[in-house]
Amino acid sequence: MAIPSKVHEFMMEHGLRYDVLTHPHSRNSLDTAHLARIPAGSLAKSVVLEDDHGYLMAVLPSTQHVQLGILSKAMHRELRLASEPELSRLFIDCEAGAVPPLGAAYGMRMIVEENLADQEEIYFESGDHEKIFQMSRSDFMTMMEMENAQRMHFSGGQWHH
């Protein structure tokens, strides 16, 4: 599958610098990190949350999980995970589970885990399960600023293989 046009257009329109890495087909973010031979903590995953007021895209290291209680309280919302059918409808041009951290391109507000800024290089899904983007920390954080992503600490725990 090619990189979705919405993703490509957003990256080009904003003059973002990135490399595209190809890897064998992966099943989830930790699998992607392993197959792409990159540190799992450097792979940013997108988790789409929702409530009665709409959607929120949370971007965090693939080794972490969203602490819904902390995030709901901080955002003054009753957030829950968006369902798979909703994700398929929202990201019609992306493969399930390969959502890029480009909420603005899909009309949703974003929040980014501040500890992603600890990574020198940041990788993220391109919209399919065989390609990822690679960006420098400064370029990734610039992209998050362009998307008006709020930065805060909302993740916890370590996922293990």
Biggest pleated-sheet summary: 8 strands, mixed
| CATH architectural category | Alpha-Beta Complex
Low-confidence blocks of residues: none
CATH class: Alpha Beta
The whole-number mean of residue pLDDT values reads 92
Computed Rg: 14 Å
Total number of beta strands: 10
- Could you give the distance between the termini? 26 Å
Query: Strand-and-helix sequence, N→C?
Result: HEHEEEHEHEEEHEE
Secondary-structure content class = alpha/beta
Query: What is the CATH homologous superfamily assignment?
Result: YbaK/aminoacyl-tRNA synthetase-associated domain
Count of spatially separate domains: 1
Please state the overall shape, judged from the principal axes of the Cα atoms.
Answer: globular
Query: Within the CATH hierarchy, at the fold level, what is the topology?
Result: YbaK protein
The tally of helices reads: 5
InterPro entries: YbaK/aa-tRNA-synt-asso_dom_sf (IPR036754), YbaK/aa-tRNA-synth-assoc-dom (IPR007214)
Domain YbaK/aminoacyl-tRNA synthetase-associated: 23-141
Protein name: Aminoacyl-tRNA deacylase
Pfam families: tRNA_edit (PF04073)
